[in-house]
Amino acid sequence: MIFALTQLLDSIGGALKESYPDISVYSNPNQQGTDIPCFFIFFMPTETENRMGRRYMRNIGIDVVYLVEKNDPDAHDQLVAVADQLDFALEFISYGNGKLRTFDREWKIDDGELHYQFTIKATVSYLDDTPSIESMESYKGGINQYGS
Asked: Are 87 and 19 within 8 A, CB to CB?
């Protein structure tokens, strides 16, 4: 399976839609005419760590932002209720035939917006097209035992 960030966004959006089917989910912050309440999904700083062989770990930071009307007197209560529900909805995210676990989940309310942040840790590998050597005797790389 090929791991792709666009598919990860779709998977997170799908998890949000399961819990909130009537609320729009956007992955692009430049959406015009957004219907509030809505969710936005943003990437945060991402790191990679080398692993054995051709594998490495991608630590992908995600920020799910939930927006409500600013002048709504119940806005704070709505944001807290959504944060509580997201703790359950985003513990695991379906991806392909499996599930990805979320790590370091936390939320905060900043300027009337809920920011639900977490990290996805995905171990991935890259294709290696280097031909393997069957034996040193059959290797004809220009080096021989006499050094010429």
From this structure: no
The residue type found at 5 is L
pLDDT tens by residue, 62-98: 999 999 988 888 999 999 999 999 999 999 999 989 9
Q: What is the C-alpha radius of gyration for the chain, rounded to an integer number of angstroms?
A: 23
> What is the side-by-side strand order in the sheet with 38-50?
24-26, 38-50, 55-67, 113-125, 98-110, 92-95
User: Position of tokens 């209560």?
Assistant: 77
Whole-angstrom distance between the N-terminal and C-terminal Cα of the chain? 46
Band of the pLDDT at 147, cuts 50, 70, 90? low
Secondary-structure percent of the chain, ordered helix, strand, coil, rounded to 5: 20, 40, 40
- Give the residue among 5, 85, 1, 3 at the shortest CA–CA distance from 37: 85
